[in-house]
């Protein structure tokens, strides 16, 4: 697969109108585009996703099937979320719950987390754990944006080093799109909730 064949999709877990997560993901996708990929921002504000119910088929859950198809078509997925209560945001959790192994297994995933305060380390850890349980290959480089209200000015990064971390994630999303996946995790055998929904 050449870099021009790579398609990178970013899932934004923030629904805020002035979302720092969305701004950072747009910078990540811009860097992926400069590296030769086609890109797409999957803005969860544009999808009707009811709370996940395992008794309801995905086809009967608003736009869940359409979203899963977009995720499935990507070569690399970037997950971006604000830190909520030490984890990632519920809109992103709902979106991931409507996906499963067909969307994530053996796929490259990049992680980006944003916090109003300290480093959103646990947010990144939780997203990484979920992705590995779905047998995705998670890029070792990840982007954390602490003190987000001070990190941007007029939609631009204030700190060039922070901007470099975010744009590096976009380049890595293209660079590692076709990497050989890891063996399945032990947890994936027990992850029956992600099958067929």
Question: Could you please describe the fold and organization of this structure?
Answer:
This protein has a single domain, classed as Flavodoxin domain (Rossmann fold). Helix 1 crosses helix 7 (160-175). It is of the alpha/beta class and 197 residues long. The strands form two sheets. Strands 1, 2, 3, 4, 5, 6 and 7 form a seven-stranded mixed beta sheet that branches. A hairpin with a 2-residue loop joins strand 3 (76-84) and strand 4. It is built from seven helices and nine strands. InterPro entries: Flavoprotein-like_sf, FMN_Rdtase-like_dom, NAD(P)H-dep_reductase.
Quick overview:
Strands 1, 2, 3, 4, 5, 6 and 7 form a 7-stranded mixed β-sheet that branches. The protein contains 7 helices and 9 strands, in the order E-H-E-H-E-E-H-H-E-H-E-E-H-E-E-H. With about 200 residues, it is α/β, with parallel strands linked by helices.
